[in-house]
C-alpha cells in the first residue's frame, strides 16, 4: 500500500504519436461524493490517501502528481455507421496507469480533442456511470470501473444549467476499435506499435503464436462475443455501440445512454438519438460483428504481405464470431434457466421461453427469479409473472424434464439459479429518482443502491419497489451522457 499515488505512463511514452500531452485545468471547488475503497485496495491505494485532500486535488485536476504524464488519447470512430476521423478524448484525461490499469478523469475540461465541446460532464451522468459500472462489476460482467465521483460545484450548461461532475474511471485500457482506426490513418508503423502495445498489455500470451496479429484479432472477437452475450443475458442495452465505444480489452466502456430492459421486447431502445433502433437490444450481436469488421479492416496491413490473403484470413476469423456469440448466449441463458447441457432440445426450450417473454411482455429479470421460486414451490404459478401466459404449463413441464433433477435435486438447481440471476438491477425509474435526489444534494438513495448492488442476488429487507419495473405508461428515454 502506498500513501502516495504513483503512475506509470506507458501509453504516453510508447504511443506518443496518437495522443496529446494535456494538463487538466482543474476544478478547485470540488468535493468528493463517492469513493470506491475496495477498488482502491485492489489498486494498492491506501484508504488514507483516498480520504485525503491531496486525492481530491488530483482527481479534480487541481494538482498533478509528479509521476503523472497526463494525456488525451486520439481516436476515430464510426458513429451510427458514419465515419468520423477525428474524435479523441474531448472531455477525459488519462493520468497514467497503476497496476497496469488506466486512471482517467472524465469530465475534466477541455483537451486538444474537445472540438466545440466544453470538456465537462454533468454530475448526474457521472453518478449514473458510477452506479451502473459497479453493478456490472458485481455481476461479473467485464467493465471499466469507478474509483470516485466528484461534484465540481460549478455549473455545466446543457439544455438547462446542471451541477458538474468528474468520474475517476479505471480501465484495463482505453484502447478502442476507434484507436486502431486512427492509427491506421496515420501509418503502418504507428499501427504496428499500437497493435504490439495492445498485445503486450492485454494478450501477452499471443506473442508466441505464428501470426500474432491474426491471433490478436481472434482474441478480441472472442472477448467481445463473450461480453455481448453477458449484456444480453441481463437485458443490458449499451445504447451507443459506436466503434469508438468498444474497447479491445473486452470491457464494457462508455456508459452514456445505456439502460436495462424491463419487459422483454427485443426491439427495445432507450436512447433519444437512436431513431432507427440501430443499437436496440436484439441488434447488439450483429452490430458487434459490424464493428469487428471495421476493426479487421484496420489490421489488414499487419496480417500478410499479400493483402488479399490478409483479407481472407481476417474474414475467416470474423465469420466465427456470430456462431461463437451464439454459443456463449445459449450457454448463459441456459445457465440462468438451470440448464447445463446445451443441446438442440435445450436451445429450442430457450427460444420458446424467450418467445413467451416477448408475447406476454414479461419482465426479463423477474422471469428468472420467479421461475426458480416456482420450481421449489416458494411461489405459486398464479402469483408469478407467468400467471397470464396461456399454456405455460406445457413449457414448464418440458423445462422440468430437461433439468438434471435426478442428479442434483430441485433445491440445488434453484439455488444455483439464484446465484446467477440478480433480483436487483439498476431499474430505470429507481436510478432516475436516486439521481434526481443526488443533484439536489441528497445522496442517500444513490448510497442505498450501491449497497444493494454489492450483492444484487440476495433479496434484501427493503421496499418491493426496488424489485419491480415501473408502472409508468410512458417509455423510458435516455440521453447521451454529456
Ligand atoms: P461519447 O458520447 O462519450 O462516446 O463521446 C463521443 C465523442 O464526443 C468523444 O470524442 C468525446 O470525447 C466527445 N465529447 C463528448 N462530450 C464532450 C464534451 N462535453 N466536450 C468535449 N467533447 C465531448
Ligand atoms: Mg465514447
Question: What do these coordinates show?
Answer:
The chain is α+β, with helices and mostly antiparallel strands and 482 residues long. It has two domains: 10-171, no CATH class; 175-423 and 467-482, no CATH class. It has helices at 10-14, 37-42, 47-50, 53-59, 123-138, 177-186, 188-202, 212-234, 284-303, 307-318, 321-336, 344-359, 364-375, 392-402, 405-408, 410-420, 428-439, 444-454, and strands spanning 19-21, 31-35, 71-73, 77-79, 82-84, 92-98, 101-106, 145-157, 161-171, 236-237, 259-260. Strand 6 and strand 7 form a beta hairpin. The protein is globular and about 65 Å long. The relative contact order is 0.11. The structure holds adenosine monophosphate and magnesium ion.
Provide a short characterization of the protein structure:
The chain contains 18 helices and eleven strands. With 482 residues, the protein is α+β, with helices and mostly antiparallel strands. The chain folds into two domains: 162 residues, no CATH class; 265 residues, no CATH class.
Amino acid at each position: 500500500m502506498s500513501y502516495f499515488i504513483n503512475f506509470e505512463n506507458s501509453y504516453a511514452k510508447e504511443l506518443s504519436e496518437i495522443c496529446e500531452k494535456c494538463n487538466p485545468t482543474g476544478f478547485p471547488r470540488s468535493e468528493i461524493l463517492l469513493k470506491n475503497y475496495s477498488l482502491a485496495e485492489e489498486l494498492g491505494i491506501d484508504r488514507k490517501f483516498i480520504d485525503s485532500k491531496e486525492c481530491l486535488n488530483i482527481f479534480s485536476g487541481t494538482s498533478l502528481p509528479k509521476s503523472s504524464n497526463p494525456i488525451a488519447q486520439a481516436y476515430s470512430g464510426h458513429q451510427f455507421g458514419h465515419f468520423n476521423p477525428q474524435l479523441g478524448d474531448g472531455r477525459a484525461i488519462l493520468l497514467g496507469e497503476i497496476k497496469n490499469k488506466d486512471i482517467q478523469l472524465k469530465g475534466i475540461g477541455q483537451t486538444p480533442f474537445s472540438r466545440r465541446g466544453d470538456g465537462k460532464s454533468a454530475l448526474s451522468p457521472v453518478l449514473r456511470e458510477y452506479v451502473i459500472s459497479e453493478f456490472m462489476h458485481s455481476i461479473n460482467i467485464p467493465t471499466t470501473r469507478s474509483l470516485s465521483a466528484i461534484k465540481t460545484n460549478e455549473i455545466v450548461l446543457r439544455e438547462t444549467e446542471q451541477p458538474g461532475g468528474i468520474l475517476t474511471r479505471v480501465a484495463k485500457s482505453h484502447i478502442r476499435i476507434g484507436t486502431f482506426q486512427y492509427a491506421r490513418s496515420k501509418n503502418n508503423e504507428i499501427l504496428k506499435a499500437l497493435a504490439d502495445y495492445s498485445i503486450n498489455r492485454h494478450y501477452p500470451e499471443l506473442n508466441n503464436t505464428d501470426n500474432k496479429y491474426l491471433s490478436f484479432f481472434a482474441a478480441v472477437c472472442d472477448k467481445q462475443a463473450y461480453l455481448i452475450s453477458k449484456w444480453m443475458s441481463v437485458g443490458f442495452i449499451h445504447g451507443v455501440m459506436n466503434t469508438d465505444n468498444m474497447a479491445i480489452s473486452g470491457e464494457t466502456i462508455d456508459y452514456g445512454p445505456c439502460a436495462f430492459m424491463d419487459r422483454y421486447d427485443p426491439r427495445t431502445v432507450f436512447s433519444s438519438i437512436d431513431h432507427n433502433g440501430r443499437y436496440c437490444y436484439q441488434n447488439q450481436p450483429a452490430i458487434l460483428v459490424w464493428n469487428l469488421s471495421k476493426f479487421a479492416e484496420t489490421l489488414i496491413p499487419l496480417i500478410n504481405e499479400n493483402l488479399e490473403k490478409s483479407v481472407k484470413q481476417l474474414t475467416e476469423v470474423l465469420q466465427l464470431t456470430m456462431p461463437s456469440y451464439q454459443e456463449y448466449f445459449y450457454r448463459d441463458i441456459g445457465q440462468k434457466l438451470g440448464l447445463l447441457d446445451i443441446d438442440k432440445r435445450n436451445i429450442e426450450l430457450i427460444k420458446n421461453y424467450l418467445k413467451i417473454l416477448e408475447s406476454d411482455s414479461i419482465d426479463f429479470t423477474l422471469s428468472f427469479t420467479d421461475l426458480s421460486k416456482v420450481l421449489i414451490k416458494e411461489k405459486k404459478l398464479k402469483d408469478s409473472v407467468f400467471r397470464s401466459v396461456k399454456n405455460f404449463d406445457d413449457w414448464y413441464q418440458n423445462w422440468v424434464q430437461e433439468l438434471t433433477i435426478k442428479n442434483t435435486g430441485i433445491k440445488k438447481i434453484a439455488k444455483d439459479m439464484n446465484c446467477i440471476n440478480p433480483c436487483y438491477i439498476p431499474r430505470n425509474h429507481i436510478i432516475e429518482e436516486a439521481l434526481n435526489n443526488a443533484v439536489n444534494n441528497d445522496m442517500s438513495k444513490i448510497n442505498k443502491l450501491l449497497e444493494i448492488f454489492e450483492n444484487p442476488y440476495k433479496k434484501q429487507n427493503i421496499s418491493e419497489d426496488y424489485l419491480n419495473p415501473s408502472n409508468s405508461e410512458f417509455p423510458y428515454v435516455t440521453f447521451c451522457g454529456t
